[in-house]
Specification:
Length: 336
């Protein structure tokens, strides 16, 4: 018997509804146990254990990342594509799950349960991937480098928003759905001295940080409107009467495409080097600079998803104006 699309949709939605209570409990559990990137041991174990209990073949610590996992199910319809559902579950420092990664986790877990109910009639393979450290750690980047995505044909995920449901079914050539992003930490080392008795003997590391901020601010007028540069001073000295021998600042740089972003990075690094030269401080940039790519849209997948959403009477809002999100995600690297 050949199943129709409506048969699949009914089977899938019933399976998700059946598991609704468990999915909500998991979401609340992850939300109440916020964990920073690469430290999501509670969430990773909870999600991997749940997949295992539902019959998935689970591998833990994949790609050399302790809190990453893969849950796999083979389809019953012969050879076909490998479709990966990407779960996220890390939290933000001090804020917790402000970006709703607990919801991203159960959205993709629930989608896995839904597909599982219909998989005996479908070709290919279903994979639920646990992808840690989206909040700046670049967990997906590490997994890409380790070959985790080499056999994946289609990757799907989701993100909570103020819109109920949106699908980008149209996109102009070159349009992206997020900002490419890179983080930089600038550490300046000077020389301490008494600021009143012998200030000429000191090298002021804080002045170097301030000059870096001023240099970046003077550049803003000449940047494209999609560019974002934001930073904080993390270290600025210990006492007002002591010339600061150490000062540091963290910056995040974003733009619609990485080519333009790389140009901005070179200018910002040059500004920081210039600040070190001006003050006599020594500059170090110790943090690995993980580049998040812009998200490349797939209007074909979006059209298919929107069609299914309409078929089950899910409310669908139009895409927000402005061509997608002003945020950044390592899902962009997956899309590239």
């Amino acid at each position: 018997m050949t199943l129709q699309k409506s048969d699949y949709l009914q089977t899938v939605t019933q399976a998700i509804d059946t598991n609704r209570e468990e999915l909500v409990e998991i979401s609340l559990d992850i939300h109440s146990h916020p964990e920073l990137n690469f430290q999501e041991r509670h969430a990773a174990k909870l999600l991997a254990d749940t997949l295992e209990a539902h019959g998935f073949e689970v591998e833990r610590g994949i790609g050399g990342v302790e809190t990453a996992f893969r849950g796999t199910l083979e389809g019953g319809g012969g050879d076909g594509p490998t479709v990966a559902l990407l779960a996220e579950y890390d939290a933000l420092p001090e804020i917790g799950h402000g970006c709703g990664h607990n919801l991203i986790a159960i959205s993709n877990l629930g989608a896995g349960f839904g597909v599982q109910a219909a998989l005996k009639n479908l070709p290919g393979k279903l994979v639920v991937l646990g992808t840690p450290a989206e909040e700046g750690g670049g967990g997906k980047n590490r997994m890409i480098d380790a070959g985790v995505f080499d056999d994946v044909d289609i990757s799907l995920s989701s993100h909570p928003s103020s819109n109920l449901t949106t699908f980008g079914t149209t996109a102009e050539p070159g349009e992206t759905w997020s900002l490419a992003m890179v983080r930089y930490r600038f550490e300046f080392f000077g020389k301490a001295a008494h600021a009143a008795v012998q200030p000429e003997a000191g090298i002021n590391a804080l002045n170097a940080v301030i000059h870096t901020f001023n240099g970046i601010d003077s550049m803003r007028q000449h940047l494209r409107s999609d560019t974002r540069i934001h930073g904080v001073i993390t270290d600025g000295g210990t006492a007002a009467n002591v010339v600061p021998e150490f000062a540091a600042a963290d910056f995040i740089l974003r733009s619609r495409d990485r080519v333009y972003l790389n140009d901005i990075v070179q200018k910002v690094v040059a500004i920081a080097n210039g600040a070190a030269t001006m003050t006599g401080a020594r500059l170090e940039m110790p943090t690995p600079n993980v580049m998040y790519e812009d998200v490349r849209p797939s209007t074909s997948l979006a059209t298919a998803a929107e069609s299914n959403a309409h078929a089950i009477s899910m409310k669908v809002d139009p895409m927000p104006s402005g061509g997608g999100s002003g945020a950044s995600t390592d899902f962009g690297n997956v899309s590239h």
